[in-house]
Write a structure and sequence with these properties.
about 600 residues, binds 2-deoxy-2-amino glucitol-6-phosphate
Length: about 600
Amino acid sequence: MCGIVGYSGHRRASEVLMDGLKRLEYRGYDSAGIAMVEDGHLALAKKQGELNVLQKTLPKFEGHTGIGHTRWATCGRPSDRNAHPFISCDGRLAIVHNGIIENYSALREKLEAEGHNFTSETDTEVIVHLLEHHYKGDLRQALTDTVSDVQGTYAIAAVKEGSEEIAAARKENPLVIGLGVKENFLASDVTALLSYTNKVLYILDGETVLLTPNGVTLHDQDGAEIQREPTVVTWSAEDAQKGGFEHFMLKEIFEGPNSIHNTLLGALDMIENGEVLPRIEFQSVKLVACGSSYHAAMVGKYAMEEFAGVPTTLELASEYRYSPGAREDPLVILITQSGETADTLAAAREARRRGCRTLAVTNVVGSTITREVDEVLYTRAGPEIGVAATKTFLTQLLAMYMLAIRIGYGNGTLSHDSMRSALSSLRQSSNFVQSVLNDVHSIEEVSRMLDNAVHCFFIGRNINYPTMLEGALKLKEISYIHAEGFAAGELKHGPLALLDSTTPVIAVAIKGDHTYEKMLANISEVAARDSPVLGVGVEGDNDLARLCEKMIYLPRVKPMFSPIPVTVALQVLSYYVANRRGCSIDKPKNLAKSVTVE
Ligand code: AGP
């Protein structure tokens, strides 16, 4: 969630750094700062609050080399003095850091005893003092020595007075170099670089890098220089802009059909040819994830059992690593759109430690998870800036179906014809999503039902139980309305006590699903408590409409694939409610796009 940028070249570095930090805002932050090499000396500017607070107080820096940071507090509260960058006691070195230094207390004690004066409450500050301790004229070597003293995770960038050099190192936090002509860039996220270059070098764990306007050198953890071919990023800077929509979230919802297309592109052929998951000799599957990705995993369980007949269990990533692990799971699938979620990364490591085969489903090429697992399936949804997962969640659903179909075909549960028919339903799913999007204004209209709600319930059964959990998560995270999702059959075991005319209930019932009649019965129970019901069902379903105050109609879809249009309809619903309430939709309070702390 913290962001790093660095620049050394011919431009005014402060402008490049502020622009890069702006593009990283979506990651979530509470303070920001930059360190510049100005007239041979280091100059610092940092402030608690949004970037415009920093911008207002920024001196007119002229230098061409600098580093910048957006901080999301983990150790030490948000404040000016806890903001990065940090400068050494002699004022000659400055650093920014993402991650957590676990042994910082012991290091701080030792450094203070040596006379280093600390000015903040952060773990990060030990890094600049260690760097000062080790610095003997070679910045990269000093950083190498520094990281060998620390335990924890990091992406670090360092500058020194009178120099165009930036040294950087990483462990379990992303870092990428952007290559230009007589200028080079550094960032924690490729989004910060795209308006300058699309040629990048991904830094791997344990590596250090030295960057100047004229070149970039990479070293492995033994200090040996390494060569790496640059990767050309196909995302354009424009991909990461709002493209005429009021919010990134709405733009990203509307990108759903195209994202689905990209997710399926190539992968369908690979499934038919058995190239995805080439080895399928396992008896059970475990799905591990956090937040929305966990809801995708829940849909995955239904799909896996339906299409592949494989017993499938679920675990939250934050719980998995501490679970007893009594039985080894032959295949552990980790789902994380960012590929950087700390809990999911820890779970991946634990799964491998337990000897499980691991597969990651992620959206971000080159993200940390891709290096922690045996196999990767990319969702290819494109960059998602809004904190609320929308198109990335949708494409995770597609990935779940694809994997289930692949495994089912591979283990003989699905015949060739059934496999092709299931894949053809997936192909059609972008049309279903498009048809929901063609009618967003009727969803906008019915969403007014929720405007004055303090509490909202979302209910569904079977494969639409998880989509209702996701619907509730979406509403609460962007509108701040208290929303809870329930398996509809559970209402009478407690939650029904909370229902009255002030609590709207959003209920999904897909005609043709084997739980449809039961859903109608549950909706009747709700209506009998005077709760206004917003029904979500297929076009022409008058039985459902009769029980509901308002309706969201979906195209006629096979029940098994209904989570795809249901998800999009509920994303749109939440969006309009939050927008009328004037909420900070793309950056909800207290939340961050990628949660890189456990
Ligand atoms: C959903 O809108 C949230 N942004 C959040 O629940 C998210 O899904 C969770 O933090 C997991 O993120 P990941 O997919 O990047 O691992």
